[in-house]
Amino acid sequence: MFKKIIFFLLFTQLSFGQEIKKNILKPTKIGVLFNYGTNENFMFDDPDYTYSTNTYKLQAFYKLGKWKTIDFELIVQPQIQSLQHQLLNFWYVTPDQENFEEKTIEFMKPKSMSLYGLEFGFASKLKLTNTLDLQGTISLGFMYIDTRTERLAKGFTFIENFSLGFSHQLYQKSFIYVGGNFGHVSNLNFQKPNDGYNILGLEVGYSYQL
């Protein structure tokens, strides 16, 4: 009898643990998002350079909890960014830098670059109507940039984003998101240079509830 009780408890624990693991790993929604951002805007518009990005994200949404009418979600976002960049200020690379003349010639040419990585967003959704939510998201990503410039070294870097927009339920399980974002790319001085990039962007996304 005692052995049967022990076996039942172990079986229950294993089954329950597996169910919890499945629930944690399974997203509540999946989606895609496109973002266009640029340095040339009313907030930044740095005259030293031009910089723009087309970002393509896959999204997996996980519920974190709820407080009153606010829902909290984790959004896991693998992504690819297609970047366009050019140095405009001929005097940006100073003579105290090694091979500054060669670097100036290299950096002033227009560049097409790519950024690859994984971003984790923490979203808060305030319900405005039965089908419309105000959504704010703060996120951090670990990235790799494939080309060096006068502002950022090639290799490992971080990306930070703050987004604000509206999520609208189109159908029972379909949602569309439209919003804007502020983004920053830098590497926390792991490498030099690390002046980084700032953008303002517009984004649109679609998600489907599983």
What does this structure look like?
The chain is an alpha+beta fold and 210 residues long. It contains two helices and eight strands; from the N terminus they run H-E-E-E-H-E-E-E-E-E. It has an eight-stranded antiparallel β-barrel. A hairpin with a 4-residue loop joins strand 6 (155-169) and strand 7. 21% of the residues are buried. Residues 2-21 have low confidence and may be disordered.
Mean pLDDT: 89
Read across the widest sheet, the strand sequence of neighbours is 1-2-3-4-5-6-7-8
Shape: elongated
What are the secondary-structure elements, in order, as H or E? HEEEHEEEEE
Largest beta-sheet details = 8 strands, antiparallel, barrel
Radius of gyration, CA atoms, in whole angstroms: 22 Å
Low-pLDDT residue spans: 2-21
Overall number of strands? 8
Distance between the termini: 43 Å
In DSSP terms (H or I, runs of 4 or more residues), the helix count works out at: 2
SSE blueprint and pairings:
Elements: H1 2-25, E1 29-38, E2 49-67, E3 70-87, H2 100-107, E4 111-127, E5 132-145, E6 155-169, E7 174-186, E8 197-209
Antiparallel strand pairs: 1-2, 1-8, 2-3, 3-4, 4-5, 5-6, 6-7, 7-8
